[in-house]
Each structure stands twice: as structure tokens, then as C-alpha cells.
Design goal:
Chain lengths: 273, 448
Amino acid sequence: MIKQWGKALSVLAIISLVTAGRAEAKSGIVIDGSTTVGPLAKSFAAYFDKKYKVPVTVSESGSGNGAKSLINKSCDIASMSRSMKPQELTAAKSNGVNPVSSIVALDGLAIVVHPSNPVRSLTKAQLADIYTAKITNWSKVGGPNAQIVVIQRESNSGTQESFKELVVGKETPVTRSAETQASNGAVKNRVSLTRGAIGFIGLGFTDSSVKKVAVNNVMPSSATVKNGSYPLSRPLFFVTNGQPTGLIKQFVDFPKTSDGKLIIKELGFVGKY
Amino acid sequence: MNLGTRKLLDRAFTALGLGSIAVMAMMLLVVLVPIVSKGFSAIVFKSTVEHRKMVFNEFHRGNRSALEKEIAASDAARRNVYDMLSRFESELMLMNEDKQQEYTEKYDQVKSALRGLLGPLPGDSEPALTRLTYGQNRWEKAEEKLQELLYEKKWDYSNPDVVAKEYFVSRSAGFEGTSLARLFPYVEKNIDRMLLPEWTFYWGFITDSSVDSHIFGGIWPEIQGTLFLAIGAMLFAFPLGVIAAIYFTEYAREGFFNSLLRSANSTLAGVPSIVFGLFGLAFFINTLKVSESKSVLAGSLTLAIMILPTIIRAAEEAILAVPKTYREASLGLGSTKWNTIVTVILPAALPGILTGGVISLGRAAGETAPIIFTAAVSVGSAIGLADVFTSPTPALSWNIYNLASEHEAAAEIRHVQYGMVLSLISIVLLLNLSAVILRARISKKLKG
């Protein structure tokens, strides 16, 4: 009887030894957050990996999860497509985390429809009406007689928050018939396959499979986002715990360097600096 | 029932059985053939000279002098294109303003289509992203890009009341009367001389890291991450599972507590995997803090909890299947209970226990939900064995999902996704195969 307990205990001891062996310096940078900032973060990561041999890992789980990771101190940088919410700031304070945001790039929220849709331009009010189901047919906004398939993002998404803030109003709920997709890519894919669909994605994600629609007669483009004439633009952030130092500072400041600016431009985002 | 009806029913049942086997085989074919054929297209494909340039520059493989010869040959064919571009540019300068504007937009589209095909044009500044440094790596993609260069896809919006239809316009018609019109037939005719396609076996797809978030390169970090996670899960779950099974079969007395434990175990086996994922995040990372952030360790522990019930069940069945006479003989010879378990029962039950273990290993390798929050990242380099306690890792199952839905260039790199699917299936198949072999060898040894 004693012998078998000894064996069981030794197995447990091995497990705890293995678990305890983790106390070791962490060298890389861990990034978690927005799918919109994803392409930027991944390309920056590849650049740092290649140039400085610094391992950088990037997760794209949504701005909300990025903020949560930062508050739980499980990431070094939270990439976010919206600013921190007041309740997130309080949660951070109570956890001893001091979130410091710096702007990575600017991004336009492009309104996209299926390429077969003849509608060229919508006003912000029309968009709000579409997303609150006051307008449900394309013929009301100068299109064909077809039902509008409204596509939104999940509640965890910073893109969704920005869209609500800029178009529908923070407190107004989006129509219940809206379909939810979990990433920019998924929205683009859904819109490119559905004739009556409308959705919103980061400008960097647009390509020829979907058609961009002008908002208040301004087409989203690098130029109109940069000069502020496109009404649905927003900054993208890297949020760190306290003022960044060392490598993390270098990473956060990368958008200010010439290589950083070039990467931002090549990915279809709009440089802030 | 008379004999005739019986025979008829018998035949009908045989037919039904054979029919369902045939349907299953068909389904298997329908599923496996595209997986295998498309998956292999990631490794065996017609590569262009751009691919060989990429492999040479990024991974330092290939024959330098042969490559230089190839580049020289393709550059000779490309020079005409670049000459035509510069000739058109000087022509453009001489046009009046209206015409200039009309042509500039179209010309920019032609240039970006050419960049997609051949890589940066002369006079372009050096791109920072690796994906823009090379032209098309794959011949079948190059043919698609060629169509984009030759024909512009347009939508007929003339009638706003109906859904528009797409139509294709030849770009060369748009440049009728200018020197650029000659470019299109030239590119169409000489595209293979410019890109030099040849069949390639790109084994680097398995052994290389990805370059520029999976646009080029291979999937080694994902394969390694998957193996680490699965093996790590086994290291935790297998000993615990076998010990629990021994307790259940040999020591536990039938009673309320025991049946409670058993039903808890069965319930655990039926819990959806995403619940384990969230539990892993809350328990291992936030509460126990086994690592500062996502790590292979946290992911392995989460997967271990997920596969534990299956291992316990399999081990229990295997131990119960050992004939009672073995035990009685051992005890009758004066052996202790523990000695009997270790020297008689466990070896006899080992094939069954191992089968259960390896099936769970396959499941651990394929699960996505438990590692989303605990271990998986979309981009990261291959990690060393020393990093498993602190570093997260890319893993096949999660990255397949990521490439399918979140990647900004998902449509361009479907082949990578297919290759990942094939690798994952191969890993699981190999694990299962090794289990079969191991089991056969052990059984043979026990009999002999």
C-alpha cells in the first residue's frame, strides 16, 4: 500500500518539477488584439524577427481580448482598433496596469458591398438607417430591388465599436437581423459572396473582390483618410503597460521610422507620422 | 416466416450492408481526394524563377550559377516589356492633359498588374514587405495574374434598378493607337520565357519557417508546435489516466463515491472543447499562472485535461479485459497486489492502454478550441525545447482557421492552407499507424 503511494507521489513530483522549470527570462515580444491591426503587427513582427532576431508572436483575437490580455499582464503590447474603454481603464488600474497608447497608423472604415451592386455612395444617415433596419431594401438608397443583408462584427471587435460610435451612435443597438462575422477577412469573404450584402472592414483589407462605397460622397482612400475628409476614419493603437522601454519601445515606435512608414503604406494603411 | 422471405430479407440486408460500405468509401474518397491532391499542390507545383529567387535569398538554397543564368534569361525576355513601358511613359509626357489623365489611371493598373506578375519594375523603390519583393512564385497563380493583366473585370452599372453583371474588357483595346498596345500580346506570348516555369518538389514547405506571414516559405513552426502540444498533453495525461484507471478497477469499492467519480469522468468526456479552452485560460494562466501569457505548457495542460477521460476509459476497459485467471495465478503464487498490477496486469493490458493513448494523441493534435486562448498564435517562429514553458507557438489546427478567415491575403495563399490540412491529417494518421504497429509488436511479444 505504501509502495503504490510512493509511485503516485513520484509521478506528481515529476509533474511539479516540470512545471517549476519555467522560471526563465522572457526575451520575445507578445502581441495580442485586433484583427484589423493584425497585418501591421505581423509584418512588423517579421521585420523584427529578420532584422534584430527578436521573436515576436502575434495573436489576432480582437481588440477586446487584447485589452483583457494587457490587463491580465499576459501580453506586452495590445493592438487595438479603438481606444481603451473607461471600464477597461478602471480594471487596469485595479490590476496595477497603466495603459499607455500610441498610434500605429490611421485606418478608414470602408463600407463594402458586392461588386454587382450599383450603389456608389451612401450618406452617414442612410448607413445608420440600414444598420438599425429602418432601410431594408437597396431600392430605397438608389439600388436594385433587393433585400439588404446587414453584416456586422462581433462585440469583441474594435472595428465594431468604432463603427457604432461613428455611424449608429454608441447607445443605439444594431438591428437584430444583422449577421455577425468574426474578422475583417470573414466580413470581406461574406460580402464578396452575397449579392445584397453590406459590411464594414478596415481600408487595408479591401481588394477587388468587394466594392467600396463612398460615404457622404467621399471615397475611402489613403488621401481622404489622411486629410480627414473621409468621415469614417480612426486611429489604430499599440497599448503598453506603462511607458514602453527597450525593445518594446523600439517596436511601438517602429511606425515612425522610414521602414515602418513604407510597410504601413504597402499594406494599404495610412501612416500617421 | 417461410424460407423464401427469409432468403429475400437476408439478401436485402446484405445489399444494404454492402451499399452503406460503398457510400462510406465514396464519402471518404470525396473528402480525402481533394485534401490529398490540393495538399500536395503546396509541395509539388510548377514554380517560376521568382520562387527560386525567393528560396535562394530567404533560405540560401539553390545553385547560384544556374540561378544567375536563369535570371539572365528571364531578364532578357523582360527587357522588352520594360522598354515598352519607358517608351510609353515618354509618349505619355507628350500628350495633352486630358489624354494624359485618361491614360495615367489605366497605365497605373497595368503597372500594378505587371508588378504582381514579375515583381518590382525598374525604377520602383525597394519594397519593405517581402511579398512585394518577388513576382508570382507559382505558375498557376501567374496565369491568373496574366488574365488580370490582359482583361479588366468591369461591372455594368448602367441600370441602377437591376443587379449589375460582370464583363471583361481587353486592356490592349484601351491602349489602341499607343505604343503600349504591343505589350499585351508580347507578355501573353512570352510569359513562360519571363517566368521559366518548371516542376518543383518544394520540401522546404515542411521544413522552412514562413516568410512574411505565410505568403512564402513553409509551415515548420506550425508542425513543431502541434507536435509539442500533443506530446506535452500526453506527458501529463497518460500517467495520470493510467493511475486513475488502476484505481477505478483495482482499488475503488463500488459505492456512491465511486459511481460519482465515474459519472464525473463520463461527463468530462462530453464537455465541448471550447469550455476546456476557457477553463485553461482561467485556471492555468490567470489563476495558477503557469506562464506569464499563452504558452505551450498551458496549452498542453489544457489539452491533457481534455483527453484525460478518454485515456481513463480506454485504460479501464483494457485492464478489465485481462482474464481473471492471470490475477488469480499471480496472487496464488504469493505475489502482492501491487506487484500483480505492475508485473502481470499492466503488461497484459498495455496494448489496449496504448491504443487509447495514441487515439487521444491524435485528438490533441487536431483540436483548435482548447489552444486558442492558451497556446496558439497566428505568427511566431519555431520555438526551442527550452521555450515551451514561456512561449506560445503557432499550431496547425489554429493556423488553418486563421488562414481561412482572418489572413488579409487569404485568397492568394489557399495552397498553404491546403498544405497545412494535409500535414495535420498526415500527422494524425502517422500517430495512429504507429499505435497499430506498436500494439502488434507488444501483443506478439506477450504471446511469444
